Write the structure tokens for this entry.
Amino acid sequence: MTNALQNRRILLVISGGIAAYKSLDLIRRLREAGAEVRCVLTQGGAQFVTPLSVAALSEDKVYSDLWSLTDEAQMGHIRLSREADLVLVAPASANMIGKMAQGLADDLASTILLATDKPVMIAPAMNVMMWTHAAVQANIKTLQQRGVKILGPASGLMACGEEGEGRMLEVADILAAVAAHFSVAGSLGGKRALVTSGPTFEPLDPVRFIGNRSSGKQGHAIAKALYAQGAETILVTGPTALPDPAGIKTIRVQTAQEMLAACEASLPVDVAVCAAAVADWRPSEMSDEKLKKGAAKAVLELAKNADILATLAKAGNRRPRLVVGFAAETNDMLKNASEKLVRKNCDWLVANDVGSGKVFNQDDNEVTLLRRDGKGQTQSDAWPRQSKDQVARALVEEIVSFFKTA
Ligand code: CTP
């Protein structure tokens, strides 16, 4: 996280939903990042978290009553709505979203949301059927058109036991989106970034494919770190179990050919980071029907896929200013990676040893950053083993310095 949140004043509206328990952590994390957090708790919100917990974590009074004479005398709803840099509604219940869309003002939270002249972000949280209901979707569209930023929701298992879209985004993702909001004019503000992530699946027939073990964790973390530094970020990802990161334009693809097409359609960008584990080969033909095991022996004919990294790094006026590749090696890592750096004409290469289950699907990574210095020499920096999020942030710090000095 950058210091984008330092001294930012955030008015957090907590409306009614089980996800309100996560808002307690959100308050703590926002404050740890340097923000001042003032909280408004709706009647519904107070069914899930107590005013005392909210007050203790925010170290401030909790506001909840529009009609309280003392509150209004100390800090009226108009002042509350103006003395903030951002109004964040988390969780945003279906009811709260409906009131916002309709312009209702029947409690303190909805009155503030109507009176504010500040940017508003909401993190919806509700049951999947409620979220997909046409009424809620129409309200969301109305809010989007008015410039409200919608964070999530995420998919997964819900407190009610059902599964699907509607969970409130994880606190870390809300935090990243809020930080990104404040750092738009920050280090990578005005820059466009493209990231590839995850594996590709190359179909053999309607049920089988050739794939690999990439989880997408590293690529997704890099996209989030670029976004957190204010870059307009496009993530082109193969099939992964990861949710689409908030605020990032995410294009989901299956095959290498689709990934290449999505990347080319995203140009021009200032920086491209190719972290995807792209299949080098695809079955020459895809059978429309499931292949039968009939024969005792089968020979599979493969066709070569285009190299996405090398294609993006090809000299030309659409070449990104900075092209960063990854090298997954199981042996002679530095030698192979240095050759790959030159062969693919990229500027930097993040090399990692993927032998014996050390990287794929793990949460941490040990990498060496190779850079071409323009005089035909390659410099290498070995980084300690650290989480993939830390690797992402460290890489993005290098990208920030590159653009500062470029
Ligand atoms: N890459 C790509 N398109 C491909 C193959 C690889 O964009 N068709 C990119 C990867 O995203 C990564 C880099 O190239 O940034 C290196 O990938 P890696 O699998 O290490 O190298 P390969 O080119 O596949 O070479 P080899 O398998 O021979 O080591």
In short: The pocket of cytidine-5'-triphosphate is lined by residues 196, 256, 274, 276, 278, 280, 305, 307-309, 325-328, 340 (CB under 6 Å). Residues 388-405 form the longest helix (18 residues). The domain at 2-182 is CATH 3.40.50.1950 (Rossmann fold).
